[in-house]
């Protein structure tokens, strides 16, 4: 069974600080996909990134970067120079590629990390 | 940019009543999903739907729940007899493909309140 753990329930930082959100996952599959979604106070789920299990290259997109390490089953997310607009709940999610054939692949979400960025 | 839409944004109902939550997935997408999020908790998978049938469902998705794609655009979730514990935000999502970890695009959600 797949599982995603986000041990940090809430993080508070001051604007311009860097912050790392942790994500640890469990899966028996060798092929799987990892995602990060952002949920701002308005409630919608905003896709941030997808990573497949064969690609361990770190990725940077503007102030966002992701560190994927299969050896520790972790897919951590770092925001550099945080801003107040980054305040949101961030969810890490896992999808196993060997899901039901022809039927889509469900996402298993972690419990989320509430990030508060203050002035 | 195409997006998933959901109606209504907020639904209040009495316990025991039937509710239908509506979603319009992105038009060329083939796979459809419902998730729910109880207030302050994580997002949980309910059901996936492809080719006019359920492809996978979770333990939450019991006989009180059903899904339907009544026409070429809408995708609905029906709760036959609502319970207090059904109060949650319900998200619809769609994806173009199923494999290769295709991105699921989420709608804005319907907040269901059962009194």
Topology overview:
The complex is a heterodimer of chains A (119) and B (115).
Chain A: E1 3-5, E2 10-14, E3 19-21, E4 24-26, E5 32-39, E6 46-52, E7 59-61, E8 64-69, E9 74-79, E10 88-96, E11 108-109, E12 113-118
Parallel strand pairs in A: 2-12
Antiparallel strand pairs in A: 1-4, 3-9, 5-6, 5-10, 7-8, 8-9, 10-11, 10-12
Chain B: E1 5-7, E2 10-13, E3 19-24, E4 31-37, E5 43-50, E6 53-57, E7 65-68, E8 75-79, E9 88-95, E10 105-106, E11 110-114
Parallel strand pairs in B: 2-11
Antiparallel strand pairs in B: 1-3, 3-8, 4-5, 4-9, 5-6, 7-8, 9-10, 9-11
Characterization of this structure:
The complex is a heterodimer of chains A (119) and B (115). Chain A is mainly β and 119 residues long. Chain A contains no helices and twelve strands. Helices cover 0% and strands 51% of the residues of chain A. In chain A, strands 2, 5, 6, 10, 11 and 12 form a six-stranded mixed β-sheet that branches. In chain A, strands 3-9-8-7 form a four-stranded antiparallel β-sheet, with no helix packed on it. A two-stranded antiparallel sheet of chain A has the order 1-4. Chain A is globular. Chain B has 115 residues and is an all-beta fold. Chain B has strands at 5-7, 10-13, 19-24, 31-37, 43-50, 53-57, 65-68, 75-79, 88-95, 105-106, 110-114. In chain B, strands 2, 4, 5, 6, 9, 10 and 11 form a seven-stranded mixed β-sheet that branches. In chain B, a hairpin with a 2-residue loop joins β5 (43-50) and β6 (53-57). Chain B starts with a strand and ends with a strand. Chain A binds chain B through residues 32-33, 35, 37, 42-45, 47, 50, 52, 91, 93, 95, 97, 99-100, 102-112, and chain B through 31-33, 35, 41-45, 48-51, 55-56, 58, 89, 91, 95, 98-109, 111.
